[in-house]
Design a protein that fits this description.
Largest sheet: 7 strands, mixed
Distance between the termini: 55 Å
Number of helices: 16
Structural class: alpha/beta
Number of domains: 3
Shape: globular
Radius of gyration: 22 Å
Strand content: 15-25%
Helix content: 25-40%
Length: 557
Amino acid sequence: MLKHDVVVIGGGLAGASAALEARARGADVAIVTKLHPARSHSVAAMGGINAALEEGDSWEGHAFDTVKGSDYLADQDATEIVCKLAKETVLRLDHWGTPFSRNEAGKMANRPFGGMGMPRAYFAGDRTGLALMQTSLEQLFKEKATVYEEYMAVDLIVHQNTFHGVVALNVRTGEIVEVAAKAGVVCTGPAGRTYSNTTNALTCTGDGLAMVYRAGGALKDMEFVQFHPTTLHGPNVLITEAARGDGGILLNAKGERFMTKYAPKLLDLAPRDITSRAIQTEVNEGRGHPGGYVDLDLTMMGEARIRERLPEVWEFAEKFAGVNPAKQPIPIEPGQHYIMGGIATDSQGATTIQGLWAAGECACVSVHGANRLGGNALLECLVYGKITGANAGEYAKKQPGASGTTGAGQLAEKKIDRLLKTAGGENAELLKREMGTAMTAGVGVFRDEAGMMAALTAVREIKKRYRNVSVGDSGKQFNYALMEALEVENLIDLAETIASAALLRQESRGAHSRIDHPKRDDAAWLKHSIAHRRGDEIQITYEPVRITMFEPKERTY
């Protein structure tokens, strides 16, 4: 058994920030991560990180845009914390050496992002997440932090609703390891692989959310799933919002700039939920190209500017779509990108399990409410990574020695032994594909009762079939088929929760757009959904939105 004061599960931007801050509080900290931190999904974030740095801008303006963008479901105390701390957060990363892009005067350059009243997205070309991650890792290595790399967290060690550590699979050896700790921070990132058309990496399987859910913790607002408007048609590789922030426009198959109909003021820089619905509407009504896509036109920017400001967009368009973006439009379609819901926390990142915090995309604080604005995700990772790391470090000081619990590791070993020994059963990859197809068809950009019920029924049938899943490889060292089988269990639990919560919410708000309930209904639904696992059933209750500054009003752009 390994023992530490604080264990951070996940090595991305939120995890690195949490570990650095807990270490600064004097805690013995370890990161448990199934990937090298430089391969975390944080590096996929492209366009920018928001902060009110310009003269004439303010954190209050940033907060208003965020709350409005959330369709008034964001908890405003959390939004206030993030927006107030944005300036010092971005400047700290700049001082650490993040290679932010600069303007001709040598100042950090910014670009407009969807739903923002002012340009406040600061960037490093279109590789902002990578730049921030590399800078944070330098600090982590400088502090000689303990990192258990290629250790896949399997289950939390929780006794009487108090956190005592984590059980992990050492991918290199196949051994089960208990990491006992006085406090924990979950920073495991996205769960996008619940859908078949997603920008998320293959490793984004919601491990942290599912572990907290199985351990009795609460999930919040899981019905709110964001579809990014501009992903490459087919492979759903992300084409950053920065492409539109730098001047790109959306055109349908007739060459019409259709966003004039849907967001006459902000046009192509409307919030993501509105833009995704606009694209899907154009396709559904026959104004898209055969195959179901529209065009993103960057030709007015010219090759030199695209290569300078959007090098990855150039590379992706050329390699994956076979187009020269300086001469041809890029074929795009909406694709699953982000889940606004996650592990339920309070405004300090504390979960419903004592001694456990959560930060980043796996958490629901809730800064983003029903719809996240671009540029706020990286900011949330850094701000709440730091806050939760500090809280976990201070909490650990007051606790007796880390003990773990006997039996948690044995249960995990039994689960893995069963997976390895089952022969001729269901194939995990096939189950994942069937689940993703069902979720995309039934709980996508547009939703209705029949479609969501069909998706939920399919997911529950897949859940039954999973009981007979087999890995097909009995070896223990670097058994990625075993990892996938464990990940698929997590995804199935989360897909069921998403579909169940979506079916119950009888309104349209943000990314949750029901054609059978097309209006937002504040009187009945200005509230968060809270999901608990009760045996084999899902129990969903509700709690009020924390409103402090901005009263809900009609959302127009």
